[in-house]
Amino acid sequence: MLKRILIANRGEIAVRIIRACVEMGIETVAVYSEADRESMHVYMADRAVCIGPAESKLSYLNMPAIITAAKLMEVDGLHPGFGFLSENPKFASLCKMAGIAFIGPSPEAIGLMGDKAAARETMKKAGVPIVPGSEGKIYEVEEGRRIAQKIGYPVMIKASSGGGGRGMRVVLEDDDFSSSFNICKQESKAAFSDDALYIEKYIQNPRHIEFQIFGDSHGHVIHLGERDCTLQRRNQKVLEEAPSIILDHDLRNRMGEAAIKAAKACGYVNAGTIEFLLDRDKNFYFMEMNTRIQVEHPVTEFVTGIDIVKEQIRIAAGLELELKQEDVRISGHAIECRINAENPDYNFRPSPGKVTTFHVPGGHGIRIDSSIYEEYTITPYYDSMIAKVIAYGRNREEAICKMRRALSEFAIGGVDTNIDFLIKLLNQRDVEENNYDTSYIEKWLGK
Asked: Would you say residue 115 lies in a domain?
């Protein structure tokens, strides 16, 4: 087993990983920027190292600084969390070269699945259903237009190296193609240093269903069921739940088998997520693979009773998965809401500042993942997510009731948050009745 792990991240995911390590008897090393000197993960870790100024590229994206800290602290493992360098194949390679176990997949798997055009081709060869689209990377607008016309509008333009909704546009008609293509190209270059795009048929009014998978270095691959991540705003997830009540037994099995097939096709080791789009006729299509732990992993932990971070660490240490597919049991229902420091009344404008009040909800079936505290200052340099509330019930109705109650108890003063927005969302009849698609929030806000 690994003895000392560096967490190359910040915020609630760094706290989450430290907690798992403490329970496993593993020492932890936190890294932090100058802006995060007073952050909770710094206080919680056994050791902490400052790796640079507030700006991400000079700290949390600074590969030489992080590897140097890891070597100085003599760690034998490194957990990248999510975001930042978690899906950077070069960083995973540097860890390997330094003799540090990267708690995630191989650099090759990260590189393959991070290149969306290559990932599509890999899934196609493996027999996993894919959305009709371009066969490779697209760089020129006229080439892209010809492909869009052949596929038929509407189409989705996506950054080949992208994620998180950046470098992505839906194009409804040919007249809008050139401007959308050029915007995606610019965004992709700025966000990922790569302006390659790809184009696929836009599936209208889909559900977004993802499967949590695990692979070990001994050739075993399993899945832990699905999460429904359909409630989104601008391609960013707002609320996630498990299981998805839109799936029946047969469809769940077929999608789970496809997820395992997808993982095996790229020789995947560690935790990952296969994301699918499900159309109105219950046809599903591979969308992408996230080669890291997900923000929404707690809902899967609630309904399976499996600690995903601990399993990640065991797999990285070379241990064999103790679980077999038949051992995975889904029980009850879990919902997660992301709490952001933002103002929904002003187009979800970020709201940094000092937290003057911080009272978290409790009670049976409620989990809070957060890294903030009273008198903590939320800086403007990083993502606005400051907490996650996860509610667990015997069924979806009970989980929704518990979530409403928990959100109503949550008090954060000094900054704006989206808590009231989430309460309103959960009170919508369409949400109660599971009658929505990925465009629901935009349509609701537009009313």
From this structure: no
Both structure tokens of 201: 């048929």
**pLDDT value at position 136?**
81
Out of 18-22, 67-71, 202-206, pick the least confident: 202-206
Q: What is the pTM of this model?
A: 0.90
Q: Is residue 68 situated within a structural domain?
A: yes
Residues 153 and 86 in one domain: no
Residue ending a domain, among 166, 201, 236, is 201
Q: How much is the average pLDDT of 378-406?
A: 97
Residues designated as active site? 292
Q: What is the CATH number of the domain that holds 194?
A: 3.30.1490.20
In sequence order, what are the residues at sequence separation of 6 or more whose Cβ sits closer than 8 angstroms to the Cβ of residue 324? 220, 222
Residues 56 and 86 in one domain: yes
Whether the predicted pLDDT of 164 surpasses 70: no
Q: What is the pLDDT of residues 421-442, one digit of tens each?
A: 999 999 999 999 999 999 999 9
124 domain residue, yes or no: no
pLDDT digits (tens, 9 = 90+) for 14-56: 999 999 999 999 999 999 999 999 999 999 999 999 999 999 9
Residue 192 has pLDDT above 90, yes or no: no
* Domain ranges, residue 387: 207-446
Provide the domain count of the chain: 3
Residues 298 and 348 in one domain: yes
**Closest Cα to residue 206, out of 276, 277, 154?**
277
Q: Check pLDDT > 90 for residue 352.
A: yes
pLDDT band at 97 (very low <50, low <70, confident <90, very high): very high
Q: Please name every residue paired with 241 in a beta bridge, in sequence order, or none if there are none.
A: 228, 335
Say if residue 193 is in the same domain as residue 211.
no
Percent above pLDDT 90 for the chain: 90
**59 lies in the same domain as 153:** no
Q: What is the CATH number of the domain that holds 10?
A: 3.40.50.20
**Taking a C-beta distance cutoff of 8 angstroms, is the pair 204, 210 a contact?**
no
